[in-house]
Design a protein that fits this description.
The chain is α/β, with parallel strands linked by helices and 572 residues long. It contains 22 helices and twelve strands.
């Protein structure tokens, strides 16, 4: 149930003006700053059209209360030019809770995206380099956006645009030929490949000619040299094996692992189109596309040695995706520092005559920061994601044991895993994506703060009450939900009915944090209700209604956490 939408439809029905749209009325409706002023307020200035807003408000009030929709309200008050709506608490509670318990994991889902394909490109680690903590931003945000668009009915295609092409492979090939041991790499691929990659840069400081050799190796790779290609395939194979182990741990999957190399045979067409349209210009031996906008640097398409760069491959990838998927929206979840790159790529596509370039969206995010270090693959100073997750799981287990609840949990290791991983994923999506994340594990695992464990604990607390009720033989299936009219009960109901709108807002801004904050909002409302009410000792009819409300609440918490890739545990 979307209360605001229902109210909007009622108001439109009684305005008798075909020019007034749902979006117009919805944009006017607001929530008053104080509860005593009602659930919603409608300013009538823009409805007056030459009349006094007070008169329009009074007339609209009488029409609604005397019509078939009057029972939806306990009262409607005219306050100057405003209409303040007081909803019928019992009716709202009955409709919202009934809908949640009927639909369960499908509660609030829409079909507005039906028939429209949304591509979400995320994670995209580089082959032969560690899956470090910095990669989690793209991975977590992209996974959540995929789930959010899926919730709204879109056909979502999850793409992991693996970094498996570029001059870094020329460096790695040079390094492998000098210091690589195949057996060691097969046993511990990422660490061993990183070791020789870092060594290359150290040696290249004294022998800069190695950089020229690396560029030559990549040129050979682009030309399909058998020996170089075989080495590259080996690096890709062993790296993907490690990456998939991490994705399995996080519960994240993809529909496509088409990386940069997939588009290597599709780039000549891009160059041909640009030449045909006279868009390519020479600049210091390179081929570039210039823009009319001031302070917009040209986009390099071919380097002076004729090799391609990231932009060439991204342009080819976008054209392939449009042809292959005919996307409605093509989303790139890539760090904010790449904003100029994507502006150039989308600008080139637009110059090529592809109007659908406007449907390509860069979703940027900030940095992961540590108090005493800076991430740098080149220098070998990285914080591995797996190490962070294992530490979070171990610390979670310690907390459970210290709290004395370990004996109540069926599988403490599994619970620690769900909570520990959930804590990290939740923290990375708790605030706006463009804000930097200062990594502090203690805060992430605070069971009483605005954290993943706090939300998971609220869920487990609700499930505990329902188990106790079941043990006592209490049945609430046919509860009179219209009895849920007390302030704290009603406030919780009003929060629960916001799910669809919160997901919509999250998708419109490509901001998973809106869903994450909503999960916290549900739990705060639930815990206020829980801490002030002895549910199991309530009068039988009220008790049944309250148990149904708890069931609806835990169901919505679980569904909300699922949208951001976080699991739940039944006991904590």
């Amino acid at each position: 149930m979307d209360i605001k939408k229902q109210l909007t439809e009622i108001i439109i029905k009684y305005t008798n003006d075909e020019a007034i749209t749902e979006d117009f009325i919805s944009g006017l409706i607001s929530v008053p700053p104080e509860e005593k002023l009602g659930d919603f307020a409608l300013p009538c200035f823009r409805l007056a059209k030459g009349r006094k807003p007070f008169e329009v408000a009074s007339e609209l009030r009488e029409q609604i209360l005397s019509g078939n929709d009057g029972e939806f309200f306990s009262d409607i008050k005219v306050v100057g030019p405003y209409l303040n709506f007081y909803l019928n608490r019992g009716k709202v509670s009955d409709e919202v809770v009934s809908e949640i318990l009927r639909d369960r994991e499908n509660y609030g889902k829409l079909k507005e995206g039906e028939g429209k394909k949304v591509i979400v490109e995320y994670s995209s680690p580089n082959i032969a380099k560690p899956f470090h903590i910095g990669h989690l931003c793209s991975t977590a945000i992209g996974n959540s956006l995929s789930r959010i668009y899926d919730f709204l009915g879109y056909d979502v295609v999850r793409i992991n645009h693996i970094g498996d092409w570029g001059t870094q492979f020329g460096k790695l090939i040079s390094a492998y030929k000098r210091w690589g041991v195949r057996e060691d790499i097969e046993k511990d691929p990422i660490n061993e490949l990183l070791k020789i990659y870092v060594k290359f840069h150290e040696v290249a400081k004294e022998k800069p000619e190695l950089e020229d050799e690396a560029r030559h190796n990549f040129k050979l790779l682009e030309e399909g040299d058998p020996e170089v290609t075989a080495l590259w395939k080996f690096f890709v194979e062993v790296s993907l094996k490690e990456f998939n182990r991490m994705y399995d741990m996080l519960g994240i999957g993809f529909d496509s692992f088409a990386g940069e190399s997939f588009y290597s045979d599709k780039m000549p067409e891009i160059v041909d189109i640009l030449r045909e349209k006279s868009l390519l210009e020479e600049s210091d031996g390179a081929q570039v596309v210039r823009f009319d906008e001031p302070n917009m640097p040209p986009c390099i398409i071919l380097k002076s040695d004729g090799s391609t760069i990231y932009a060439t491959r991204d342009i080819a990838a976008a054209l392939y995706r449009k042809r292959h998927y005919d996307f409605y929206k093509n989303i790139y979840v890539v760090g904010t520092p790449q904003a100029l790159h994507f502006k150039q790529v989308f600008g080139v596509l637009k110059k090529m005559g592809f109007e659908w370039a406007d449907d390509c969206v860069h979703v940027g995010f900030g940095y992961v920061r540590f108090p005493d270090r800076v991430l740098s693959t080149r220098n070998g100073d990285v914080v591995l994601l797996e190490d962070v997750i294992n530490e979070s799981i171990a610390k979670t287990k310690e907390i459970i044991v210290e709290n004395g609840t370990a004996d109540q949990i069926d599988n403490i290791d599994e619970a620690a895993k769900v909570i520990g991983i959930g804590a990290v994923l939740f923290e990375f999506q708790k605030n706006g994506r463009e804000r930097d994340i200062v990594f502090e594990l203690a805060k992430m695992l605070d069971f009483e703060g605005e954290s993943g464990p706090y939300v998971q604990y609220s869920y487990a607390r609700g499930r505990s009450v329902l188990r106790k009720a079941a043990d006592l033989g209490i049945d609430y299936k046919n509860a009179d939900l219209g009895l849920l009219t007390d302030d704290l009960e009603y406030q919780l109901v009003k929060v629960l009915q916001k799910l669809t709108q919160q997901v919509r807002d999250s998708a419109s801004k490509n901001e998973p944090y809106i869903v994450t904050r909503y999960a916290i909002e549900i739990c705060k409302a639930f815990n206020k209700f829980y801490n002030s009410t002895n549910v199991l000792k309530s009068e039988p009819d009220v008790r049944a209604a309250r148990l149904a409300l708890i069931d609806a609440t835990t169901s919505t918490i679980k569904e909300t956490l699922n949208l951001i890739g976080v699991g739940v545990v039944e006991k904590m």
